[in-house]
User: Fold this.
Amino acid sequence: MVEIGNEQLFWERLQATPRPGEENFLAFYDHRLGAIFTNPRLMLIPLDDHLVHRGDGVFEALRFEDGAIYQLGEHLLRLERSAGAIELALPLGKAELDDLIRQVCLASGASEGNVMVFVGRGPGGFTLDTRECPQSSLYIAAKRFVRKPESFWTVGVSAVRTRIPAKQGWMSQIKSVNYLPNVLMKKDAVEQGADYPLCFDGDGFLAEGSTENAVLVDRDGVFVVPELKNALMGTTLKRAMSMAEGFMPVSTRPVPESELYDCREIILLGTSIDAVGVVRYNGRVVGDGVPGPVGLRLRGLLVADRKAHGQRLRQA
Assistant:
């Protein structure tokens, strides 16, 4: 028989129970408690928060380094749009949220890391009815950034067509915590022996990766962004498009899979990877089989942009 514990036993067991990966969890904020904590064994979300049992919530993932955070304003705008799309009220104003995110990053004590912001429907019950949640929830967590070796960008990565379809158009535009399709895409790619998956819409056109946007340089030297009917506009993609416009033509149009076999470059874009070249797709060589000049240039520009335009964590 499982024992019936009291409050003392709960806290003793909680403190003594190891957390997988806890060495990478540096600081977190819980809106219910109104404080920042640095013990990862206390990082808990109520099971009855609709964020947990219904996937009813939205999130953003940001990057900070050298005392600055990158594209904080862009991420907060997208968080606000995602929350608005599901009629979820942010528990704090953007100015307060901005300040809290910076404080959590500082409390982590890390020179660089990622910070995750989650807004949920809130605790209150286990049904589908949002009315049982009196207040939306907010959790912010800073975690250690594990740097990839330089060979990740100089050698490049592989990708495959995932057997998991792209999200529905309206759902793909919301950065919700319901990432089951994304999880299955990544699992599928690993099982196929590749680094990254690429998914396609019902018409056979390229949509996105599991957490990355995918673009290509076509055989005419045009920077091509797939139509984002079934994909989320990434903050890194948005910056990369404006950068690419400075040195080459940029076009947005449907991209059939056949074009991936006949293009100069396939480039993945994301917060944690900047820009990386895909050198093999479905086992076939892409371009010259090495990361191409556009992807390498964009990576350099994104790194420089982050250093030049990151917002200081400690505001003057």
Q: What stands out?
A: The chain is about 30% helix and 25% strand.
